[in-house]
Design brief:
Elements lengths: L16 E6 L4 H12 L3 E7 L11 H4 L5 E5 L10 H22 L3 E5 L3 H13 L3 E6 L3 H34 L2 E4 L2 H9 L10
Parallel strand pairs: 1-2, 1-4, 2-3, 4-5, 5-6
Helix pairs in contact: 3-4, 4-5
Length: about 200
């Protein structure tokens, strides 16, 4: 039986084991983890330290400032953002590492932000295995952007690959219990392009 929260205005709400994953390591997602912990949940926050082009908001002072357990995931090599093939392999490596942790520790709830789609697919599969609730933090419509960029750059092959990722993004959004869209434009995209019911979009 899950332990109820005892403090604040959240009495009677089950204490959840929450994984907050932020591939890019941004400070605003870290604040979300802090708030979950403040409400009494057991929170693990994961991010990719090998992604050196993002401004990680995780200094030792910040990490020691609350009750969040941080899990910095280090890949075998720094993320190669200039090679599509190598970067995809590394993103899959990240997804596999995170998926195994999710399954082994049996989290109740997963929030995933700024996540490459190949890695998100692995994470969502693992979450489904243990019946964890899934929340997709939508910072960018990666599938649509990929289709536009690769379609212009590589024409036939690019359009094919772009269509694949657009389809994958639709599937992952559809599999999510909730979608957090950071803007009204993205919320509209979820509904009109990807067919996600508005009741599941925050």
């Amino acid at each position: 039986m899950k332990e109820p929260i005892r403090d604040g205005n959240h009495q009677g709400v089950s204490r959840l084991k929450v994984l907050v994953n932020d591939y890019g390591g941004y400070a605003f997602i870290r604040q979300l983890s802090t708030e979950f912990a403040r409400r009494g949940h057991a929170v693990t926050h994961s991010f990719c330290v090998s992604h050196t082009s993002t401004p990680h908001g995780y200094t030792s002072e910040l990490i020691s400032g609350d009750d969040v357990a941080f899990w910095p995931i280090e890949l075998r090599r720094p993320v190669d953002k200039y090679s599509l093939v190598k970067r995809r392999q590394q993103e899959i490596e990240y997804g596999n590492l995170l998926g195994r942790k999710l399954e082994s520790e049996h989290f109740d709830f997963v929030v995933s932000a700024n996540m490459p789609l190949d890695a998100q697919k692995i994470l969502w599969r693992a979450a489904s295995k243990i019946r964890a609730r899934k929340v997709f933090w939508l910072q960018d419509a990666i599938g649509i952007a990929t289709q536009k960029i690769l379609g212009k750059k590589y024409r036939v092959v690019g359009r094919f690959v772009g269509a694949f990722y657009k389809r994958l993004e639709r599937q992952l959004l559809a599999q999510s219990d909730r979608v957090i869209a950071i803007s009204s434009n993205l919320a509209d995209t979820c509904e009109s392009v990807y067919g996600i019911d508005s009741s599941r979009i925050v």
